[in-house]
């Protein structure tokens, strides 16, 4: 009798263990499913949502008379999406709102001539660079806005997004930052021309082509100041390593087969911004980016 009771108890205990094991397995599976990566989500949806400004010529802009977004950055992203067999859509934000759009989940990634910096790397993942450049400065044509050296920026008014690296450089040298919303290049340039601002620090390629596109505005690229070498990359949510790997692998193929060079020359006046420049560029000391 006692032996029969013991057998029943052992069987009941085994059933409880099996049930607990099954429940734990189910919880483990649920946990695994809930922790799917951003790449898994994108692949399952078949869609990629990318943030850009749409006002940064020639990286992300609308040609005059057209409602189709284009530019070097835009076409690079279109090619990436095509090679990954993903449907692509762009969401437009001002420069100061692009990174927060990643953090809030409104976009999967951002492409907008965004520079890789140490401080940004603490909060975001970056692809390998798709563009290499350096910083230059737009000033008034008649007197170079009274600027001969970077130190002469002190007390001047710099036009541009408040959260950009270029604004940080201007502040480093003592300039006042005049911030804008999501406006086109002509607004920035005309403010320098009429004296509302004194200078615009930005990317060499972007500024060169902006001046070429708006020749009636009396501003110029400073002839002597080349500084802060830069690398631009696609910005992704922090920790999404699988997504970064997919993007990097695609960029590597585009570099190897000449696609990046071809796109760069199309939008940067025949110049290849996908390779590091040969010019001597001044490093800025004491600036923590």
Features:
globular; disordered N terminus; D-Maltodextrin-Binding Protein, domain 2; 11 strands; 2 domains; 289 residues; alpha/beta
Q: Overview of this structure, please?
A:
This protein is of the alpha/beta class. Helix content is 40%, strand content 17%. The strands form four sheets. Strands 5, 8, 9 and 10 form a four-stranded antiparallel β-sheet that branches. The protein has a three-stranded parallel β-sheet with strand order 2-1-3. Strands 4-11 form a two-stranded antiparallel ribbon. The radius of gyration is 26 Å and the shape is globular. It has two domains: 38-130 and 233-267, D-Maltodextrin-Binding Protein, domain 2 (3-Layer(aba) Sandwich), CATH 3.40.190.10; 133-229, Periplasmic binding protein-like II (D-Maltodextrin-Binding Protein, domain 2), CATH 3.40.190.10. The protein has helices spanning 2-34, 38-45, 72-83, 98-103, 118-121, 165-172, 185-193, 204-213, 241-256, 259-267; strands at residues 47-52, 87-92, 109-110, 124-126, 131-140, 157-159, 176-178, 200-203, 219-221, 227-232, 235-237. Residues 1-34 have low confidence and may be disordered.
Helix/strand/pairing class, anyone? alpha/beta
Order of helices and strands: HHEHEHEHEEEHEHEHEEEHH
The average pLDDT value, as a whole number, equals: 88
Report low-confidence residues grouped into runs of 5 or more.
1-34
Q: By CATH's scheme, which homologous superfamily of the largest domain applies?
A: Periplasmic binding protein-like II
Strand content: 15-25%
> What is the CATH C level class of the largest domain, in words?
Alpha Beta
Helix content: 25-40%
Major sheet size, sense and barrel closure: 4 strands, antiparallel
Number of strands: 11
Number of discrete domains: 2
Please work out how many helical segments DSSP would assign: 10
CATH topology of the largest domain: D-Maltodextrin-Binding Protein, domain 2
Compute the gyration radius: what is it?
A: 26 Å
- Label the CATH architecture of the largest domain: 3-Layer(aba) Sandwich
Q: What is the 3D form? A: globular
Distance between termini? 80 Å
């Amino acid at each position: 009798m006692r032996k029969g009771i013991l057998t029943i108890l052992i069987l009941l205990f085994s059933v409880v263990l099996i049930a607990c094991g099954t429940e734990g397995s189910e919880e483990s599976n649920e946990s695994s499913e809930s922790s799917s990566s951003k790449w898994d989500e994108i692949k399952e949806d078949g869609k990629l949502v990318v943030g850009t400004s749409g006002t940064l010529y020639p990286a992300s802009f609308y040609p005059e008379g057209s409602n189709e977004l284009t530019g070097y950055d835009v076409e690079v992203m279109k090619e990436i999406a095509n090679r990954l067999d993903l449907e692509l859509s762009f969401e437009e934000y001002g420069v100061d709102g692009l990174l927060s759009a990643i953090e809030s989940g409104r976009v999967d990634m951002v492409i907008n001539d965004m520079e890789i910096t140490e401080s940004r790397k603490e909060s975001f993942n970056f692809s390998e660079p798709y563009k290499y450049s350096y910083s230059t400065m737009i000033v008034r044509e008649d007197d170079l806005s009274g600027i001969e050296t970077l130190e002469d920026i002190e007390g001047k008014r710099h036009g541009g997004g408040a959260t950009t690296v270029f604004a940080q450089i201007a502040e480093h040298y003592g300039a006042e930052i005049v911030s804008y919303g999501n406006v086109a290049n002509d607004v920035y340039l005309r403010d320098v021309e009429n004296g509302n601002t004194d200078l615009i620090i930005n990317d060499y390629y972007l500024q060169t082509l902006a001046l070429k596109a708006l020749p009636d505005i009396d501003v110029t690229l400073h002839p002597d100041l080349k500084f802060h070498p830069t690398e631009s990359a696609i910005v992704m949510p922090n920790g999404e390593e699988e997504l970064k790997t997919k993007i990097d692998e695609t960029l590597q193929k585009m570099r190897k087969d000449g696609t990046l060079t071809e796109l760069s020359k199309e939008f940067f006046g025949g110049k290849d911004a996908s390779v590091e420049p040969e010019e001597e560029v001044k490093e800025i000391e004491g600036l923590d980016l």
